[in-house]
Amino acid sequence: MSGSFNAIVAEEIDGKTRGSLKQLNLSDLPEEGVLIDISYSSLNYKDGLAVSGKGRICRKLPMVCGIDLAGTVAESSDSRFKVGDKVLVNGYELSEKYWGGYSQKQRVNPDFIVPLPEGLSLKETMAIGTAGYTAMLSIMALKKQGVTPEQGEILVTGAGGGVGSIAIAILSELGFDVVASTGRPELHEYLKRLGASSFIDRSELSEKGAPLAAERWAGVVDSVGSQTLANAIAQTKRDGCVAACGLAGGIDLPATVFPFILRGVTLCGIDSVMAPMALRLEAWKQLARDLPKERLAEITRTEPMTSIPELADQLIAGGIRGRVIVDVNA
Question: Which helix (H) or strand (E) covers residue 212, if one does?
Fold first, then answer.
């Protein structure tokens, strides 16, 4: 097989790392067991960091960016997958150690591959992408800790982003009363359509608060980190659960042990990158079941791969709402 194809490749130029559109050949791809003709990828916060060079995501260069991909098996040396199978890959250090999904073709370790979940199309899986998959892992953690709709409000921080938007849509569908935290009032109507029942301005959570505040949240899905996460923990009810899945606001956690030892609050870390395959398959199964298609459509827009460098900068600046599907062939 021969012929060139397009990819977004991060390289170091004049001391700065930046992703740009390049042409590759099959001979450039890594030696892995399954060749995938990619249909779609998606844009996540980590992708924004990798392509813009504003975060040290790529551990080696050159690196094909994109932590998600969905497509069709073109070649396989692994008996689990045959030519024509519809599959997806997300996480597993794509765009960090392994070449990722911003490419029309990619060779992938078969241990990373998830068969297309029943009830979802390739495009819908990338509308969900790592952001939606992370949201579902967070919700599964809350449910595992016994959080139910009857126990009270669920706080979702970073509500306008991909994780937040999909978390709101799923939690609402499951009967939870969802409070959305955002600093963009213009998103309120959009978030209401997804299922948010009320709002809290992000400034109320991003400023230093008491180490143990009045109890409010039965559970929290937090993609922000730092002071926002500390305040969310301090406001969580007795025996409540906080799922920490992001760091858009910073990597520090200026909290105390009070909520944990005086209220029994549980802090669950969500590792979407290296989650075991059994958990990964269950998350995708529940996404197919619990995420309403009409709300997924509300969250999503589709852009060509050629727009990725510009979109990456917009995402890091907080200028993108919801989810962006990347059509790698447009």
Answer: none
In this structure, what DSSP letter does residue 98 have? B
Mean pLDDT for the stretch of residues 254-261 = 98
Identify any residues that bridge with 41 across adjacent strands, giving them in sequence order: 326
Radius of gyration for the chain, computed over Cα atoms and rounded to the nearest angstrom: 20
Residue type, 29: L
Domains plus CATH for the chain? 4-116+299-327 (3.90.180.10), 128-269 (3.40.50.720)
Contact 131, 323 (CB under 8 A): yes
Q: What is the pLDDT of residue 260?
A: 98
Judged by DSSP in three states, 81 sits in coil
Q: Residue range 234-250: average pLDDT?
A: 97
- Taking each continuous run of H as one helix and of E as one strand, the counts in the chain are 10, 16
- CB-based burial label for 125 (10 Å; 0-12, 13-18, 19+): buried
**Residue indicated by tokens 């070649």:** 75
CA atoms within 13 Å, Cβ hemisphere of 237: 16
253 alpha-carbon distance from chain centroid = 21
* Long-range CB contacts for residues 13-17, cutoff 8 Å, separation at least 24: 16/53, 17/53, 17/58, 17/61
Does 1 score more than 50 pLDDT?
no
Token pair for 241: 């659960």
